[in-house]
Amino acid sequence: MDFNLTDEQQMLKQSARDFGKKHLEPLSLEIDHKSIFPASNIKKLAKMDFMGLFYPDEYGGLGMDFLSYILILEELSRYCASTAAVLAAHCSLAAYPIYKWGSEEQKTTYLPMLCLGEKLGGFALAEPGDAPAYAPDKVVATKDGETYRLNGKKYYVSNGGVADIYIVFAVTDPTAGMKGLSAFVVEGNTSGVTTDKYIEKMGLRGMPTTEMAFDNAKASLLGTLNQGSAMIQEILACAGVAFGAIATGICQTALEASIKYAKERVQFGGPIARLQAVQWMLADMAANTHLSRLAIYQTVNLFEEGKSFITEAAITRMFVAKASVDVCMQAVQVHGGYGYSKEMIIERLLRDVKGTMVSENSSEFPQAVIAGNLLR
Fold first, then answer.
1. Do 206 and 311 fall within a single domain?
2. For residues 53 and 69, what is the distance between their CA atoms, to the nearest angstrom?
3. First-to-final CA distance of the chain
4. Is residue 2 part of a domain?
5. The whole model's pTM is what?
6. 105 is catalytic
7. What is the number of domains present in the chain?
8. CA nearest 181: which of 235, 107, 243, 145?
9. Residue 246 · residue 71 · CB < 8 Å
């Protein structure tokens, strides 16, 4: 397995880094403090052709590989994780299901708008209950001629309130629990679709998450009836790798900031970088960042070869979730009181990195996926 990047991938990676430094970093503080949706950033990403990077050119994408997309997310998240999260939800949670399971009509209708950044994608799975299909206000789909009508409520909708096209999971077989779920494409301006409440989050505050209500809202079936449960695992695996890349980018920023601070901060007659305790923390941070990146690349390789990647994505997600929080906690330790204050970005990195692993907020915890596939 060769993880050496091609010249094209190296150039793309550098392009994303330069873009993030110039356009994302100056706005990142305000986006976080005021929970601002980074609309201007998203428009600029569209102009860079980042909104449909790994989708075929016949649907408006650039036809590049999945790894290139992952590299972009990692670089962008070094400067504004909220913007990277909006992009990841758009590409992995909204565009991917349409590309993988959509009819040719759905693909030609929706993918070009999504890939060109003319429309933004959102994702609605979680409900205010134990799991989708079990809540009192669960979203239920009923057949209405050639389409369906949705009724119920969703919680923690990714890109909620700002997306134009949503992937929504609804009950089509009330007797089957989550195995009776189906996926639907719902246009955001459809009559009967309303945003009930914006959810204030600890981190990734620029990526809107909302509660949404569906009142006889028109929807188009995606894939086949009652296929939703199987689709959820693959969609969340794809998204888990994407958000893992965002976590790794955050870790890289935390590591570089900590190295710089350790060299500059003087205590006890010299820079704290000479203290073994600090050196050990930096070493741990570097190891966790490196291993997270390798785990992500290995899962991406399976995806690109067309092999099953769901278990590996869950393992990667579980490892990165712990490793990335450890990295950012150690960054706070290296920075001392300044790391805990809002005078530096470290506390934001810690808040953002935690959000990368709970962003989809579904019952499909990685441990359950891993154990289920091991014991079947």
1. no
2. 6
3. 28
4. no
5. 0.95
6. no
7. 3
8. 235
9. no
